[in-house]
Amino acid sequence: MFEVWAPAATAVDVVIGDVRHSMDAAGGGWWTTEVAGAGHGTDYRFSVDGGDPMPDPRSRWQPEGIFGPSRVYDHDRFAWNDDLWRGRSLPGSVIYELHVGAFTPAGTFDAAAGRLDHLVELGVDFVEVMPVPPVPGTRNWGYDGVDLWAVTDNYGGPDGLKRFVDACHLRGLGVILDVVYNHLGPSGNFLAPFGPYFHDSAASFWGQAVNLDGPGSDEVRRYFIENALQWLRDYHVDGLRLDAVHALHDRRAVHFLEELSAEVDALSAAVGRPLTLIAESDLNDPRLMTPREAGGYGLAAAWNDDVHHALHVAVTGERHGYYDDFAGALPKVLTCAYLHDGTFSSFRGRSHGRPARHVPGHRFVCAAQNHDQIGNRAEGDRMPAEALRLAAGLLLTSPFTPMLFMGEEWGASTPFLFFTDHVEPHLREGEADRRRREFVGFGYDDWAERAPDPGEETTFLRSKLDWSELDRDAHRAHLDWYRALIALRRAHPELSDPRLDRVRVDHGDGWLVVHRGPCQVAANVGQVALTVRLAPGQVLLASDPKVTAEGEELFLPPRSLAIVKAA
């Protein structure tokens, strides 16, 4: 059965080869037809009112890319092996974010699956995969996707994603998929000819906003909600990371996110495993994670950049752009989640956010590095290893849900740059300038001089992880630190306790001590050795062998961290 929504059309055809098959109006703007002999593997397109054939808006398979035909895909043909998988809950978990194309030299789902034992030994619980729908060309971060129901063949197509999820589940790893519902990419976007998918006036920096609240938006909302359910149901994915929800334009009484969370909760009950929705948002608004029955949207968690910024400033000393407000902010964010909880934001030039200390810490996904905070630097440079060890020690003992970015666990030296592969000359030639303009005011005024061309293949190739670094002593030692931190977090429940009112921070010039029940996390982020006073006890883990404890005094060399459990 072929079906497509085209509410303003007077005629719709499904085109198979050179043959057009007329479709029947089925009510509500839908058109349907059956074509004898068509099934899994059949290539097709749709034509509206005799126009050029276009891919299916709900195409499950685009083997020839965004400008090629859609191909019928039967989900039931795949043989799953994860029947015993019962899912994984977010509280207490550690997430690992990766880009499939840059995670391994081959850049495929199957190649990524071959590295899962590394993640199991690291101790993470979820793998978060950056967006996988088809994109222009062969390389992209994924946020320029257009065929949102399909999986790019660059990585292995729909079966490849299923094999990857299956392999994760067999190793006890949950999978979170990054999805983009606030805009579509500028290339290969054929939705508009089919219906009112886009807002008449609202837009973001990345393009025209989708129509979630205007005429015809009931079916547009279903397009995105059913897309989310597809990943969770048909691909056995355990959660979704919703990109930039602050760019969703929806003024309805029931917000799209609230409707989506209700639908996902219903699916969770049906499939018998936890399903997690995580929002990326710069609003600092805890209503995202507040239960629906309490007037919120009911999402499981939200990214919290305030924690990232505070960590980054504390361990690197950088103060440009949006980092300027975050000097000395670490004690507040570790106890209140947000720095900007109604306070003045100099970067925005206004007050921002609302208090969130009542929200359990596990509802905040926090990172010392992620794809944005590395890739949004002109040279895609990562945090220096010494600084990263400090940041990891504070993050992995925090009340939040920690997220690592691929390679940080061994102090990868490879950058993660912004890369694209647009096929239209005007998009390819203008991408570097568009990227530069996006970061005006962020403290990257020399972007054009420092950033490589996003369209050059070498920009992408430089961003691939170099797994041979694990053969070097310094990188192995860095990995051992991460493994030990995650193991300690597991062994001592107080280190993952999400109750923010149970966290206390003492601090001074260049140092802080975070009290986590009987555990104390002491960090010297400065360049001078110092001694801090804390309850005497056993040093469980230290980043520097020169750390010593005697009675109530803990000696910390420069740039070091120790975790002490009171006697």
Characteristic terms for this protein:
27 strands; 14 helices; alpha/beta; elongated; 5-stranded antiparallel sheet; 567 residues; 8-stranded parallel barrel
Residues in β-strands, percent: 15-25%
From the structure provided, what is the oligomeric state, counting identical versus distinct chains?
A: single chain
Structural class: alpha/beta
Report how far apart the termini are: 69 Å
Strand adjacency order, main sheet: 8-9-10-13-14-15-18-19
How would you sum up the major sheet? Answer: 8 strands, parallel, barrel
Structure, described:
This protein is of the alpha/beta class and 567 residues long. The protein is 25% helix and 22% strand. It has 14 helices and 27 strands. It has an eight-stranded parallel beta barrel. Strand 20 and strand 21 form a beta hairpin. The longest helix is centred in the last third of the chain and has 19 residues. The protein is elongated, with a radius of gyration of 24 Å. The N and C termini lie far apart (69 Å). The model has no long low-confidence stretch (mean pLDDT 95).
Write the topology of this structure.
Blueprint: E1 2-5, E2 12-16, E3 19-22, E4 24-27, E5 30-33, E6 43-48, E7 70-71, E8 95-98, H1 100-103, H2 109-113, H3 116-122, E9 126-129, H4 157-170, E10 174-179, E11 198-204, E12 207-210, H5 217-234, E13 239-242, H6 256-271, E14 276-279, E15 301-303, H7 305-316, H8 330-336, E16 343-345, E17 350-352, E18 364-367, H9 371-375, H10 385-395, E19 401-405, H11 425-438, H12 447-450, H13 457-462, H14 473-491, E20 503-508, E21 511-516, E22 519-524, E23 530-533, E24 537-542, E25 548-550, E26 553-556, E27 560-566
Parallel strand pairs: 8-9, 8-19, 9-10, 10-13, 13-14, 14-15, 15-18, 18-19
Antiparallel strand pairs: 1-5, 2-3, 2-6, 4-5, 6-7, 11-12, 16-17, 20-21, 21-22, 22-27, 23-26, 24-27, 25-26
Helix pairs in contact: 5-6, 7-10, 10-14
